Each structure stands twice: as structure tokens, then as C-alpha cells.
């Protein structure tokens, strides 16, 4: 049985969706509503320059800042979820053309880049922050078709430039990087797709996550498949938030947690997040696409999704 994790307290107000912890040192948000309620949060615009966007994929469509369509309603994920905050006024738009799959395909879709946040947050990460919470809100267009699955933005880290591209079956220096992204499956079933050091303890801990977890042929792990659903993100804003606590060097005491609309859905402990003294949490891997690699994963039509209210805080 997994032990309870720290920092699971949530606030009984709408902003618990994006910030479901009770205390933190400092942070940033692109949500004006969240910034207005937290004096330790710096409000920054949803822009590449303000958020330290870099290594933008040259093959995927751009991520324009747009006025998103109004949501269908203010549906809540469950009766236990806090009420949602107001919908964002602006968002990054992801475009998935018909036939698009991953960024290396003939028809790439979605978008891909990395972000470190504004200077104070970035400096804290480079200074060795041990525990960080990052998240965003997303909305899928009405009539969304799931097909077999696809990736959503998450978090990444590691040693220097080795932290990048810790995905896609990479084997080289896997102990010096990590990448954690949500994935949707058929009918909106959600999971956390993880690339962590390939240690026996990590494998045991990841495969034990309920209700279903498995190792994949590309060396990533599907963790907690079915622990949440994203069907209510179709035409509605949904918050996805991650907490990463780095392990001490040589120990399996790292932690990962995922909230969806303020409810803790995946809680992992006893992990080696990265097996190097120099390893750091680097920021967010803001990547989304259909796939998989083969044509049966491809989007069956032109589809769009929107991402906003990017938020990050340093816990310690």
C-alpha cells in the first residue's frame, strides 16, 4: 500500500483547481484570477517571452495566442470537486490536422516546446528547487474524437541539456533525465506517461499504481490508466496539475502527484526521479499530439484544443 503524500491539502475555493496545495514559497501564473488571490504569485502574460519558451518544434503547427470559444457550461468533474474558476480570456491553440500524428510523421499536429517560467521561477529551478507544482487548464473542441490516444503537456528535468528529448524510446543516459506527460486513450481514459530511470524499484512502484499500469515497448510506462477521464474536457475547461519532488541522490524517495480539477488522481512515491547529483527540475514539456506512431493513431479530422492559465510554484 502506498503511503499518503505530503501537500495534499486543497483550498475550498475555485482556485484549488490550479493550485491544490496549501503552502508554497513563491511562483507565477498567467491566470489573473488566481494571482489576485495569492500575494506570493506573480502574474505574467501568456507569452513565449514571459514564460521562457524555447526549443519550439520546427515541424509542428504554431501555438498562436487566441480568444478561445466559450465553454459549453461550468460542468464539474464530480460533486467533490471545487467550483471552477472563470474561463480564460486568451489561450494557446493547438491544431491537429486530419491525418496528423506525432511530430516526426508526414502530417505533424499539435505543438511542442519547453518552458522554464519567468526569471524568479527559472532561477529557483536552476538553484536546485527540490519540490515544484506546475499546471495549466485545457479545453478540447466540441465533437472531439479520441481515436487511440495522444499526449498532453507535462513536466521534465535532468542534467543540463540531457534533460531534453527524454522520450520516444531514448536509451542513452536515461538515468540523467525524466519526462512526465499525461496521455489520453480511447474514450478519454487518462493516464500518466512516464520516462524515469529504468531501475527495478521504479518499475515496481510504477506498475503498482491503480487501476492499471503497464510497461511499453518504447521504455515509457503507462501509469494509472483509468485513474481519471478527460471526456469532460470536451467543450469545458479542465485543470491538470503536477507535483514533482526530487529524490535524494542514490535513493528512491522521489514523489509524483497528478490532480485533475483539484482532485488527486495519481500519487506515486518511492521513485528515483533522476539518478544524478546535478539533476534538476527544468520546467514544463509543453507538447501535445495524436499518437503513437502508426496511422491508426491519427486524428480523423481537423481538431483543436486550447491551453491557458499556466502556473508554477516552488514548494521547497
UniProtKB/TrEMBL annotation:
Highest taxon of source: Eukaryota
Protein name, UniProt field: Polysaccharide lyase 14 domain-containing protein
InterPro entries, alphabetized: Polysacc_lyase_14
Stretches the record annotates as Disordered: 52-91
Coiled coil location: none
Lineage: Eukaryota, Fungi, Dikarya, Basidiomycota, Agaricomycotina
Protein source organism: Lyophyllum shimeji
Comp. bias regions, Pro residues: 59-72
Domain Polysaccharide lyase: 91-310
Amino acid at each position: 500500500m502506498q503511503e499518503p503524500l505530503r501537500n495534499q491539502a486543497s483550498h475550498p475555493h475555485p482556485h484549488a483547481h490550479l493550485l491544490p496545495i496549501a503552502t508554497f514559497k513563491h511562483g507565477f501564473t498567467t491566470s489573473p484570477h488566481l494571482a489576485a488571490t495569492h500575494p506570493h504569485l506573480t502574474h505574467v502574460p501568456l507569452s513565449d517571452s514571459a514564460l521562457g519558451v524555447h526549443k519550439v518544434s520546427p515541424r509542428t503547427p504554431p501555438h498562436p495566442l487566441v480568444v478561445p470559444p466559450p465553454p459549453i457550461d461550468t460542468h464539474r468533474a464530480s460533486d467533490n470537486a471545487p467550483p471552477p474558476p472563470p474561463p480564460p480570456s486568451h489561450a494557446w491553440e493547438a491544431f491537429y490536422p486530419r491525418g496528423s500524428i506525432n511530430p516526426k510523421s508526414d502530417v505533424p499536429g499539435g505543438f511542442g516546446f519547453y518552458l522554464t517560467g519567468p526569471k524568479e521561477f527559472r532561477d529557483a529551478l536552476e538553484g536546485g528547487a527540490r519540490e515544484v507544482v506546475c499546471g495549466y487548464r485545457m479545453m478540447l473542441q466540441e465533437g472531439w474524437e479520441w481515436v487511440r490516444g495522444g499526449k498532453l503537456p507535462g513536466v521534465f528535468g535532468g542534467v543540463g541539456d540531457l534533460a531534453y528529448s527524454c522520450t520516444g524510446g531514448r536509451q542513452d543516459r536515461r538515468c540523467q533525465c525524466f519526462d512526465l506527460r499525461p496521455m489520453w486513450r480511447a474514450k478519454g481514459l487518462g493516464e500518466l506517461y512516464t520516462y524515469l530511470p529504468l531501475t527495478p524499484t521504479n518499475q515496481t512502484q510504477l506498475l503498482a499504481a491503480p487501476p492499471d499500469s503497464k510497461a511499453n515497448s518504447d521504455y515509457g510506462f503507462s501509469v494509472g490508466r483509468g485513474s481519471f477521464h478527460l471526456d469532460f474536457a470536451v467543450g469545458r475547461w479542465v485543470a491538470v496539475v503536477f507535483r514533482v519532488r526530487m529524490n535524494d541522490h542514490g535513493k528512491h524517495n522521489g514523489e509524483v502527484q497528478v490532480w485533475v480539477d483539484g482532485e488527486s488522481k495519481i500519487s506515486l512515491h518511492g521513485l528515483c526521479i533522476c539518478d544524478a547529483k546535478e539533476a534538476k527540475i527544468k520546467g514544463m514539456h509543453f507538447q501535445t499530439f495524436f499518437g503513437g506512431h502508426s496511422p491508426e493513431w491519427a486524428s480523423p479530422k481537423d481538431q483543436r484544443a486550447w491551453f491557458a492559465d499556466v502556473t508554477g510554484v516552488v514548494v521547497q
